Amino acid sequence: MGAMNPEPSAAGADTARGTALPAPSGLDAAWAHPLLGRLLRGQSRQQRLDRRHPWLLDTVVVLAIALVSLPDVFSGGRGDGPFGDTGNRSDLPIAVVLGFATAAIVPLWWRRRAPAFTFFAIALVSLAQWSLGIWQQSSISILVALYSLALHGSLRILGWAAAVTLVELVLAVCFLVPVERPLPGIFFLMGTATAAVAIGLTLRIRRMYLATLEDRAARLEIERDQRVRLTAAAERSRVAREMHDIVGHNLSVMVGLADGAATLAANRNEHSAEALRIIGDTGRQAMGELRRMLGVLRAEQQENVRLLSPQPGIRDLDALLGRVRAAGLTVTYRTMGDLDALGNGVQLTVYRIIQEALTNTIKHAGTGSAAEVTVAADTREVRIRVADTGAPPGAGGRTEPSTGTGEPGHGLVGIRQRAAMYGGAVTIGPRDTVGGWIVDVVLDVPAAPAPSASGEHLS
């Protein structure tokens, strides 16, 4: 037995597994082909050269047609026509024939800048020389002009140009410069004119298709950048809201504690009163700096934020209320329903709404007021209600919190944004019957798949 190869080749392995290698795309295959690839690369180089020096190609076209027309010019236009000997022969001087050839070739210099003018000028010159019995190779200028009009000009004018070409060719072959075989002549000339128009329209459609692809790619890139910016803006807004809820609340509690302790120390004539007032003023200054910093964060910051601790939930409300009570605010807390069955996102929303509402109470109603917090959950919705008694008599009225620029504060905006995530309804404003303010939020979120018996907790 012959030796066996223990490892099959890569192609054999792919065949054994039934996996076929992906075929190259059509464009990649064309570029990989030795002949087509060379043509495509040559076309790319020609297009780049044409974009840098547009006059160069026009000059080459003009010189090429002039060289082709030289034999007819030197023969005085007395050569045979394209389909045998012509019945009409002209004995005009060479200067006249040269003038007709020049008039038919020179307008091609403007064939891309003014295609309609170029075509009709050449058509008029061609008709004039055919009427004198002159048939030159320079007449191919009308085909080049027709091609340029199909590629660069107006399509409506192109229809008129095609009709003019048809009439001129029929007149030239049948009447002006009669040929031995008129029908094949007309067929051949109309075929070349149609080919010129078809090539021009094909290249025009190709350019339009490529321009559409480039425009689509540019728009997709713009949309991608916009999505990145919108995502970054949403992340910055979320981070700013979290920082406002956490840092702003803690600073408000610290300022309240410092002010209360300063007042108590001043009543006792203790030396620490001034230091406590400085602490309160420093805290208020820090809160102002925090607002300015959050404004910059909402507009410019693009750094990623890592969560260093678990997000708070319903169970963390006791600790929050303990800090608020320590600041001097009397808080009554009631719950109804199975709050532990709520999702983490809903619990975080409930916590932040209560935190912001109590922070506003401390800042605007003062530590001498009282607040009542109620959280109720059932099978269809969660309701958060935070009501305070307002500022004590003689402490002045209360207005809606703001940033100092005439716009509502970020805290109330944050409450509305958090509630909107769960299709909630928000009511914020002064209480009707008694003094103080109320924050009433209803979240359209089911409390639990199988709710337990509701109970009431009072602390």
From TrEMBL:
Signal peptide: none annotated. Residues 345-449 form the Histidine kinase/HSP90-like ATPase domain. InterPro entries: DUF7134 (IPR055558), HATPase_C_sf (IPR036890), HATPase_dom (IPR003594), Sensor_HK_TwoCompSys (IPR050482), Sig_transdc_His_kin_sub3_dim/P (IPR011712). The keyword Transmembrane applies. One of its GO terms (molecular function) is kinase activity. It catalyses: ATP + protein L-histidine = ADP + protein N-phospho-L-histidine. Its EC number is 2.7.13.3. The chain crosses the membrane at residues 55-74, 94-110, 117-137, 157-179, 186-205. Keywords: ATP-binding, Kinase, Membrane, Nucleotide-binding, Phosphoprotein, Transferase, Transmembrane, Transmembrane helix, Two-component regulatory system. The keyword Ribosomal protein does not apply. This is histidine kinase. SUPFAM superfamilies: ATPase domain of HSP90 chaperone/DNA topoisomerase II/histidine kinase. Residues 388-410 are annotated as: Disordered.
